[in-house]
Amino acid sequence: MNKATVFYRLPNTNQIVKRSGLIENELKPISFENNILQEVFYIAPFNTANLAFHCVLDKDNEKFEIISYSKNNKNQYDLETEFTAKTQKAIDLMNAGNSLTKVVLARCFKQNIDYEININVYFLNLCLNYPNAFVYAISSSVTGTWVAATPELLLKVNENNIETTALAGTLHINADMSWSQKEYDEQHKVEIYIEELAIKHQLEIKNKIGPDTINAGDIKHIITNYTLEKQNNKTSLFLTELNPTPALAGLPKLEALDFIKENENLNRGFYSGLVGIKQKNSTSLFVNIRCMEIFKNHIHAYAGCGITKLSNPNKEWQETENKLQTLLKHLT
């Protein structure tokens, strides 16, 4: 067990929590049992289904110590020409009749820093600028130091219901254009996936709202919110198949994961994994996007984009640029 410091703020609330506790050094299944008095913070790497690192938060802690460590860095930092070439490769594959219909490609951006980031100030800036996001910071020898302001709910489970979202498609908030067929198709693929998964696990869809537009700082997305019937013996199975969603991997999932493995040339780490908090009678899990890892003298910021056969490689690159600025512009 190792010590961890965690700051977090749930979406659309004003309560900032600053606590510490012990984090386990092995991935374990997420529990959805009710009436557990312990508050647990979860964080998991990409593509770990229902497994996560568990941190029991049991002490108030205003001091955030950045834990930065050296590791074998296998990340490549794509230039625009390199990223657009990968995007075009995926588009050509889909247009050639391959079974792949969507793939999400990510990139890592490295920014050198010659100062120590004040996490208290930075975290507060993110909270103020992204009121409808789950904002967190964690530091431990298990995870390193990660910060995010993610707008995407993966799964919220309370005593009676399961909530999830289909979020995809991206435009800059000042873009002088409406949603194109590409964005609508991309988001609709996520809707279909969730609805088919609910049918498979016999979870009644009690409510569906959307598709609507949601603002996340300077960018906006298409979102549909779902409320499903909760069945205790099926929630973990539902999460196992839901994570990662088509918004983070693609469709079909196995083919998309193979393409990602062969072409991304980076270790996503906790980017596009899950992160969240378990309280007494509810568990709120979010997709870990708009996130970055902090090292001693540089940061790694991550962004991705959903590629379909209607994609434009140059626009997909610009989408990742806009997403990266969500975090980078609040660093100074």
Describe the model:
- The protein has 332 residues and is an alpha+beta fold.
- The protein has helices at 80-95, 119-129, 181-200, 235-242, 253-263, 313-328, and strands at residues 2-9, 17-23, 28-29, 39-44, 51-60, 102-112, 134-140, 144-150, 153-157, 161-172, 205-216, 219-229, 250-251, 274-278, 283-287, 291-294, 298-307.
- It has one domain: Anthranilate synthase (4-Layer Sandwich), CATH 3.60.120.10.
- It has six helices and 17 strands.
- The chain has a 17-stranded antiparallel beta sheet that branches.
- Strand 9 (153-157) and strand 10 (161-172) form a beta hairpin.
- It is globular, with a radius of gyration of 19 Å.
- The chain starts with a strand and ends with a helix.
- The model has no long low-confidence stretch (mean pLDDT 93).
